[in-house]
Amino acid sequence: MSIDLKPEGPGGDRLKEKKDAGTARPLPFHHRAVLLYAVRIAGFLFFAPAFLFLVYAALPPPATPLMVIRAMDGHGLSKDWVPLSEISPHLQRAVIAAEDGKFCSHGGFDWEAVDTAMQRLRRGGPLRGASTISMQTAKNLLLWPDRTFIRKGAEAYMTVWLESLLSKKRILELYLNVIEFGPGLYGAEAAAQHYFGVAAKDLTKAQAAQLAAMLPSPLTRTPVPSAYSGTIAARMNDVLLGENGPCG
Question: How far apart are CA 137 and CA 87, in angstroms?
Fold first, then answer.
C-alpha cells in the first residue's frame, strides 16, 4: 500500500506556483554579455588615467588633446621637451606665484579657492577659478578644453590619481612642457625661443613673469611688461625652491 503525498486540486497548484516564483532565474546570455561589457568599460575608465600617469611619470607625453584640437584649427604645433633642470627657476617660481601659490602644500585641490569659486557660481558668475597646477596638468594631459561640470568632475577625479602617483617635481615638469603659451606654442622652451630668442633655462625674472601673465588667456595675450606681470614678479620673491626642485 502506498500513499501519494503530492497535493492535489487548486491548493496543490498554488503551492507549485509559489515554489516556482521563489526560484531565481539566471539572466539571459545576451543580458550577461552586456553587463560584463559594461563592467569592463567602467573598469577601463576607472584605471586608464592611472596607467597613463604612470607612463608619463617616466616618459614625455607625445601630444595632448588640446594640441590636437588647436592643430586641427590651424594653429600649428611647436613644442620641445626639456627637463625641469633646463627650465629657469624664475619661470618655475613665476607660474607657481601666478597660478597656484599653495602648490607645495595642497594635495591637488585648493579648497579655499574652490569655496570662493562656488560662491561666485551661486551669485550667477562663470564656472572658473580654483584650478591648481595639478588640476591644470591633469586636464592638459588627458582632457578637452571646456568649462562644464562633466569636464570639471573628470578633472578632479584625474587630479587624485596624478597627485597619488607623481611627485610635485614631475607634475611641474609636465605642466611647464605642455602648457599653452600662444597659438601653436606649448611648453617653456618653445615659448622662450619664440618670444625672447633664448633657451628656457636662460629666461630672466622679468621675462618669466611676462610669460606667466599670459597663462589665463594665451591665445590673446603676449608677454609684455604690465601691471599683472609686475605683481607676479613681486609674488615670486615668496616662492622658494628646494635643492631638489620645487617643494624639495
Answer: 17
